[in-house]
Design a protein that fits this description.
Helix content is about 5%, strand content about 30%. By secondary structure, the chain is mostly beta strands. The strands form 12 sheets. The chain has a 5-stranded mixed beta sheet with strand order 1-36-37-38-39, with no helix packed on it. The protein is globular and about 65 Å long.
């Protein structure tokens, strides 16, 4: 279900073939998170904390997508840079190749996605690439670019020309809508999409899917599937909802409809470890998001990090970050694979930041937490037919990434009237701390459905042993309304007046209503900063630094007078780190790309953008210059547009 974060933004603004040596020298960016491990860590050192302030605009490219985009379009692509070419994708299925030094277009391919369809999450976070070891140098499709599309296709393209690889699937295309175990044909277009690039490992491409998981109990199944990278033949499929009674997780799904539950899909990016023949899959909530009466139990594999044998799709281990999710706490962040030093020993780990504001550090071979995790008692549900999990997992050493509680007397306001309005909204809500279940009266949920850590994920600096994570601090209200108590007219009126979202959760006796808690001015009711950049020391588990990310005063200077506290901004899009000690991040709607000192969190530089960026940046070197590139705009309140913007340092 599309998050309503842009409503907060709108209201606030309105009121306001390469060799390893070549790859190293250019800092090639070969996967969404720079590498298959998803570290988002570049070896480049030309840009340093001392000279980052001299970064200057180098080139800008317009995709032309905005001309056919709707108001919800999201330009979230992180380009790849391989073999001296940049590759990226647009929300409605265009693949583009650019000259990395000039931004000049080399080729484009249009998948002809029907932009008139009302897609639930109109975004594409980028493409994937594979170099065919059997193909001769210079052969067609020696290097392939895999384009994921909103209408759930993967298209294989020749990297040099952008023409389809006809030996892949059907004339270059594999359709993910075919042969789903649950709902073989999705009910409507927006129910089943592909928004993230597939992982590439061992001659396979491994992909999840995006499922509209708050619409019906038996939504489309969230299977993870592997296809032959050359032929497109299906090699295996794994469903996070157990369909076989011999599965070890079967008994954690109880009820007549439990094993026909949909979703629990992996819509985020999958990490890969070829040496271990493992892929690490971040799964989301089973359908629907906010009521689990038809799928009682922990719902194991859902809301989990699942290590699958890449060659077979068999489960090796799994760690559940939320039991029986009824808060839309998907694992939205891509996992990152790192090697840390813990108690004097080097340990290969999986880093998973969550919407709940936790950073779980798991042994890569076993899934056992490297930093202790305990089960803590959490509130019971008072909804008939619902059984919330009695406990949830919490770190005992690593502190929460973002606040976990909000009381009415701590509500924030830019003015006394704002504070009073926020207090009035919070007081009637059920508010029993983290994991308070949805209720008939309305429940305060903090972190809200965009985190904590959203889909921006983790960047890992190996030399400093730091995990860098953008986080949000936005409380939400969630209410379950019995059928018959919410008329269509009331829903339409409140959606336009208050920004509430209503969803009829088919197969349940409820309509779900939710909104972010905000004052009449549009400012969030949670105390600032509303967005932060956080560094966790992975040798000790301590928080090294925590700084506000973004500044609404860039757009509304008068806010400096209204609040002496740095406000920060909600962010979508992750950070990257360089070996020289610079962290780059965009993600906020204040039209800025920022650089921070990785060691201290000090902000070093801000580059102006033509709109807000929801994407994770990337960096590379060519022609003696280091570039930092970010996708900017979309069709929503982050900023309408379709720019790819490059900054460079001589």
């Amino acid at each position: 279900m599309r998050p309503s974060l842009s409503l907060v933004v709108a209201a606030l603004v309105a009121t306001s073939p390469s060799s390893p040596l070549a790859a190293q020298s250019t800092g090639e960016w070969t996967a969404y998170g720079r590498d298959a491990a998803g570290t988002r860590s570049s070896p480049l050192t030309r840009i340093t904390p001392a000279n980052v302030s001299t970064l200057a605009p180098a080139w800008t490219y317009r995709t032309g997508e905005f001309a056919r985009a709707d108001e919800h379009t999201r330009f979230e692509a992180t380009p790849l840079m391989v073999d001296g070419t940049l590759y990226l994708s647009t929300p409605f299925g265009r693949a583009i190749a650019l000259d990395p030094a000039t931004g000049r277009e080399q080729w484009t391919y249009d998948a002809h996605v029907d932009a008139t369809n009302e897609f639930g999450d109109p975004a594409s976070r980028g493409v994937s690439t594979w170099l065919d070891p059997r193909a001769k140098a210079g052969a067609h499709c020696k290097r392939r670019i895999y384009l994921p599309t909103l209408d759930a296709r993967i298209i294989a393209l020749d990297a040099r020309t952008g023409t389809p690889c006809r030996d892949f699937g059907r004339n270059g295309v594999v359709s993910l809508r075919e042969n789903l175990r649950n709902s073989p044909t999705p009910v409507y277009t927006a129910e089943y999409e592909l928004t993230s690039p597939p992982a590439v490992i061992g001659g396979l491409i491994v992909t999840g899917s995006a499922v509209a998981d708050n619409v019906r109990t038996n939504a489309a199944s969230g299977e993870v599937r592997a296809y032959d990278a050359r032929t497109g033949a299906l090699r295996w499929t794994w469903d996070p909802v157990p369909r076989d009674s011999t599965d070890a997780a079967w008994k954690s799904w109880r009820g007549i409809m439990a094993h026909t539950t949909g979703a629990a899909n992996a819509w985020s990016v999958i990490a890969a470890d070829s040496a271990r023949d493992l892929v690490f899959v971040p799964t989301g909530s089973p359908s629907p998001d906010y009521y689990g009466g038809e799928r009682l139990g922990d719902n194991r594999y859902g809301n989990s990090i699942v290590a699958l044998r890449a060659s077979t799709g068999k489960v090796v281990w799994h760690f559940q970050t939320v039991h029986h999710d009824i808060w839309d706490y998907d694992n939205a962040s891509p996992p990152a694979l790192a090697t840390i030093t813990r108690n004097g020993k080097r340990v290969d780990v999986v880093l998973q930041a969550t919407k709940t504001g936790q950073l779980f550090v798991l042994d890569r071979d076993t899934g056992v937490p490297v930093f202790p995790v305990e089960e803590r008692a959490v509130p019971k549900s008072d909804i008939a037919g619902e059984e919330a999990s009695p406990t949830q997992p919490f770190n005992t050493v690593i502190p929460p990434l973002s606040p976990q509680r909000l009381s009415s007397d701590s509500a924030f306001g830019l003015t006394p009237a704002d504070r009073a309005a926020c207090d009035a909204q919070i007081r009637p809500l059920r508010n029993d701390g983290p994991f308070t279940p949805p209720s008939l009266q309305g429940t305060l949920v903090l972190p809200g459905n965009v985190g904590g850590a959203a889909w921006g994920g983790v960047a890992f600096d190996a030399s400093r042993q730091l995990a860098i994570i953008p986080v949000n601090t936005l409380a939400a209200m969630v209410q379950l309304i019995p059928l018959g108590q919410a008329s269509e007219a009331e829903i339409r009126e409140n959606e336009s007046r208050l920004g509430d979202q209503y969803t009829r959760m088919h197969g349940t006796p409820f309509v779900m209503r939710r909104r972010f808690l905000r004052a009449p001015s549009g400012a969030p009711c949670t105390p600032p900063p509303w967005g932060s950049l956080v560094a966790i020391d992975l040798t000790t588990g301590a928080k090294r630094w925590d700084v506000p990310l973004g500044d609404p005063a860039v757009l509304r200077p008068e806010l400096k007078e209204l609040s002496k506290t740095p406000l920060g901004l909600p962010s979508l899009g992750g950070a990257i780190v360089t070996a020289s000690g610079v962290t780059f991040v965009a993600g906020t709607f204040d039209r800025s790309l920022r650089a921070f000192d990785t060691a201290t969190g000090a902000e070093l530089w801000r580059g102006e953008l033509p709109a807000g960026a929801r994407a994770t940046p990337m960096t590379y070197s060519v022609g003696g210059k280091q570039y930092v590139v970010v996708s900017v705009g979309g069709g929503d309140d982050w900023g309408k547009g379709d720019w790819v913007v490059a900054f460079a340092h001589e």
